[in-house]
């Protein structure tokens, strides 16, 4: 039970499949779902059933259930991991999104993030996730409309919008080296939009915006994870064709993958 509770805390929202991935038990989703439902009955978690949503607003197929900590659950996590209760974040407004269209992306991305926790569990101390901040963790009041994604920064330059909100920021340790990565999960974004997003990451690196959040001297890395292999190939081809000027300056810190 406690392993599931701690995983939900680390991911902010979690699915049963995400918890299964975090424990390197990918085939045991139903096993962990029972534990999560027990924790919800105890009042330590809240849950929300999510569906795919058509652009017409019509509800589609069931995608699963998201879970998040309650105040009571946060207190249990604090005792379990030895932190002050004030240091254990929980979403005070429950499981929130400004639009139901955001939930399918969130559900898939949570399961991608859980793989990093699974890698930590299997690494025997060689890899450790030190901080994990997803875009759906907000600062301020969502209910009052003043909330801001915890990963959000403003870059300079001639962009359609200067705001960049990585899907997650992850500070991690490999051996004795601590690194910071901005993670983007490209699920449906068009290729042009992805390249503009990555160009903004280049500017954020130049300005040290994400490194400053964690008081790190070294520049952050960027993990560009694609749900579609063809789209990843198109992005790489367009970058090589010059649509990301001076990419060679940043290339060592950009990493591309599919999931």
Topology:
Layout: H1 2-11, H2 16-22, H3 29-42, E1 45-53, E2 59-69, H4 71-81, H5 102-122, E3 127-134, E4 138-139, E5 148-149, E6 153-154, E7 163-164, E8 168-174, E9 177-186, H6 191-207, H7 209-213, E10 221-226, H8 229-243, E11 254-258
Parallel strand pairs: 9-10, 10-11
Antiparallel strand pairs: 1-2, 3-8, 4-5, 6-7, 8-9
Question: Your description of this structure?
Answer:
The strands form 4 sheets. A 5-stranded mixed sheet has the order 3-8-9-10-11, sandwiched between helices. Strands 1-2 form a two-stranded antiparallel sheet. It is globular. The chain has helices at residues 2-11, 16-22, 29-42, 71-81, 102-122, 191-207, 209-213, 229-243; strands at residues 45-53, 59-69, 127-134, 138-139, 148-149, 153-154, 163-164, 168-174, 177-186, 221-226, 254-258. The model is unreliable at 141-146 (pLDDT under 50). It is α+β, with helices and mostly antiparallel strands. The chain contains 8 helices and 11 strands.
């Amino acid at each position: 039970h406690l392993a599931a509770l701690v995983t939900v805390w680390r991911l902010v929202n979690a699915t049963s499949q995400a918890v299964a991935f975090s424990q390197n038990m990918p085939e045991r989703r139903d096993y962990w779902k029972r534990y999560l439902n027990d924790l919800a009955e105890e009042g330590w978690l809240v849950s929300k059933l999510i569906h795919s949503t058509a652009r017409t607003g019509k509800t589609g197929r069931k995608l699963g259930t998201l879970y998040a900590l309650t105040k009571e659950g946060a207190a249990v996590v604090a005792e379990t991991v030895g932190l002050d209760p004030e240091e254990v974040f929980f979403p005070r407004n429950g499981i929130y999104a400004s639009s139901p269209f955001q939930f399918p992306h969130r559900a898939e991305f949570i399961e991608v993030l859980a793989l990093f926790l699974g890698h930590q569990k299997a690494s025997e101390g060689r890899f450790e996730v030190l901080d994990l901040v997803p875009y759906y963790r907000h600062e301020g009041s969502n209910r009052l409309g003043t909330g801001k994604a915890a990963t959000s920064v403003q870059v300079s330059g001639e962009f359609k919008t200067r705001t960049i909100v990585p899907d997650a920021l992850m500070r991690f340790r490999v051996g004795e080296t601590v690194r910071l990565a901005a993670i983007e999960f490209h699920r449906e974004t068009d290729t042009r939009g992805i390249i503009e997003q990555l160009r903004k990451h280049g500017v954020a690196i130049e300005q040290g915006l994400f490194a400053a959040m964690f008081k790190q001297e070294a520049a952050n890395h960027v993990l560009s994870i694609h749900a579609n292999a063809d789209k990843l190939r198109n992005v790489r081809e367009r970058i090589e064709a010059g649509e990301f000027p001076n990419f060679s300056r940043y290339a060592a810190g950009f990493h591309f993958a599919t999931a």
